[in-house]
Write a structure and sequence with these properties.
Elements: H1 5-10, H2 17-36, H3 39-58, H4 60-74, H5 86-93, H6 95-120, H7 122-128, H8 131-138, H9 147-156, H10 160-168, H11 173-200, H12 203-228
Helix pairs in contact: 2-12, 3-4, 3-5, 4-6, 5-6, 5-11, 6-7, 6-10, 6-11, 8-10, 9-11, 9-12, 11-12
């Protein structure tokens, strides 16, 4: 990832894996923007919102609780995501409430992942998350790792990884929850804005926010690997 941009452009076959992923994600983001701008997608989205609206209106508390739980699960399991429900949440409760529910759900999910790792140990964790990602950071992150580096770790890697790694390392729970709250807040706000951009068909906002999130995550991962000496 330390190669210059000009070199990457001239020799795409020499792209480091991190930059290759960034380019793929940016291309997928562009494809998503094209899909969102189509009339067919908007018809499907409108139909889905129309189906969900009366159910949520009849059970607003249970609907919010379910969205909170699903958000928590998405922060614990690599194969599960609640992103598809974000437009529904924005439509039902507004952008601010959606961001708050996402934020609280991700904090809850991270805390649960931490608790599972700390009290049930490595055999259970390996059944839940990627053993490769776990092994990559488990030897480099300990209970004595500085606050700033753990914050960078939380920002850089998939959200389901840090809770398990820090739980196994027996990192301080209060410090971890503080780091988790700080790191997940901008992602929750950005996700809510992305949901709103889908509803309002604002592809420019979708592209700008998505590209910023991808590039920021890539930068954070690059800095993390350098700090850890990988």
């Amino acid at each position: 990832m330390g190669r210059r941009i000009t070199t990457l452009a001239l020799r795409p076959d020499r792209l480091p894996l991190g930059w290759a992923r960034v380019l793929i994600l940016l291309l997928l983001l562009g494809a998503l923007a094209l899909v969102v701008s189509s009339d067919d997608f908007q018809e499907v989205l409108s139909w889905g919102l129309a189906q969900a609206e009366p159910v949520i209106a009849e059970h607003p508390v249970w609907g919010a609780l379910l969205f909170l739980i699903l958000s928590a699960l998405s922060a614990m399991l690599a194969f599960f995501s609640s992103a598809v429900l974000v437009p529904v949440a924005v439509q039902a409760w507004g952008k601010l409430a959606c961001a708050c529910l996402l934020w609280l759900g991700w904090i809850l999910g991270g805390a649960c992942a931490y608790g599972i790792a700390r009290f049930w140990g490595r055999p259970v964790v390996r059944r839940i998350t990627s053993s490769r990602e776990l092994a990559r950071y488990e030897e480099r992150i300990s209970r004595h790792t500085p606050f700033g580096l753990v914050l960078l770790f939380q920002l850089a890697v998939p959200s389901e990884v840090p809770g398990y790694v820090l739980g196994l390392a027996r990192y301080g729970l209060r410090r971890y929850l503080m780091i988790l709250a700080i790191a997940e807040l901008p992602y929750a706000a950005g996700t809510a804005y992305l949901g709103e951009s889908l509803l309002e068909r604002r592809t420019s906002l979708l592209l700008s926010l998505g590209a910023f999130a991808i590039l920021f995550s890539a930068w954070a991962l690059h800095v993390l690997r350098r700090r850890l000496g990988s």
